[in-house]
Design brief:
heterodimer; A: alpha+beta; C8orf32 fold; 17% strand; globular; B: 3 helices; elongated
Chain lengths: 221, 83
């Protein structure tokens, strides 16, 4: 009898432990993404050196992009297709611009860097060399900015991907209060069930979606 | 049974730690360090977005491909006043 009682207690503990674990995992994955979450603001973008370096490289290459967009004859081969996209996107709606940029970038060459430290590529470098997921997300970010999206409405999202069980990058876009996720493998999607956003970055700021509650307002710059 | 119990506790701890591993540090610098430590490596090959055929977008994409592969003058010469 005592043995049976012990077994019941043990079984109850096992069930409780599993439910607790499931509850934690569920809570971790359930929160919908919001562009309007000031409590998730972490710090200005320039405080993150990797992004600051990327933005500086992009700025240094912008003159060549601008020249190409102004004059097709001055366009290097690797930017000719991009020019076509930017020019033709002018008359499209925001949602169709989003779809066009997503489709164009997703046809680029997938190329995973061999170094252990991720190399975040600029739009120009990506169009020339290809890249892996964060390079796709960054290229979409700058391309969307080029075709008229405001910085407030576009971010690069660093996420945990539940399908690949690895960190992943996507582009997150807001159009009329609807949030779209641009991944490397298909159309813009409205739900984020396959990943959990951890951080978001744009040229304005960094947002931390798992921000510890004990970081005081004063510590955030 | 003891093994099962220990296993269940381990699973629970793993789930909780996984949910909070980047939450345990306390200042902005630490959060930026956590971001920097992430190696974005998802093996998720790019796939063309063909889920919603769109004749106009298809034509633009074909023109872009043609401009790249043939090195020809782009077909569009619209003024770029929206940059």
């Amino acid at each position: 009898m005592a043995q049976r009682g012990t077994n019941h207690v043990t079984s109850a503990l096992v069930v409780l432990a599993l439910l607790t674990g499931l509850g934690a995992a569920s809570a971790w994955s359930a929160a919908p993404y919001s562009f309007d979450a000031p409590d998730q603001y972490l710090t200005p973008a320039e405080d993150y050196q990797r992004w600051a370096d990327l933005a500086a490289r992009h700025r240094s290459q912008s003159a060549a992009i601008d020249t190409c967009l102004d004059d097709a004859a001055a366009c290097p081969d690797r930017l000719r297709g991009y020019r076509e996209i930017v020019v033709q996107a002018q008359h499209l709606s925001a949602l169709r611009k989003l779809t066009l940029v997503n489709r164009f970038i997703n046809t680029r060459r997938w190329h995973i860097e061999r170094s252990r430290h991720d190399d975040w590529r600029t739009l120009t470098d990506f169009l020339h060399q290809g890249g892996d997921c964060e390079d796709y997300a960054i290229a979409k970010y700058f391309a969307l900015r080029q075709v008229g999206f405001a910085a407030d409405d576009v971010r690069v999202g660093i996420s945990w991907d539940f399908e690949t069980h690895a960190h992943h990058a996507v582009t997150v876009v807001r159009i009329d209060d609807q949030v779209y996720f641009l991944d490397v493998d298909g159309s813009p999607r409205r739900n984020q069930t396959s990943y959990r956003l951890l951080f978001s970055i744009n040229e304005i700021a960094i947002w931390d979606h798992v921000l510890p509650a004990h970081i005081s307002e004063g510590e955030r710059s | 049974m003891r093994r099962i119990l220990l296993g269940a506790v381990a699973v629970t701890l793993a789930a909780v730690v996984s949910a909070n591993d980047v939450v345990s540090r306390s200042d902005v610098e630490a959060r930026l360090d956590a971001l920097e430590a992430i190696n974005v490596t998802a093996q998720k090959a790019a796939k063309a977005d063909n889920e919603a055929p769109d004749a106009e977008l298809d034509a633009i994409l074909r023109a872009a491909t043609r401009a790249e592969t043939e090195g020809a003058a782009p077909s569009s010469e619209l003024p770029l006043d929206a940059q």
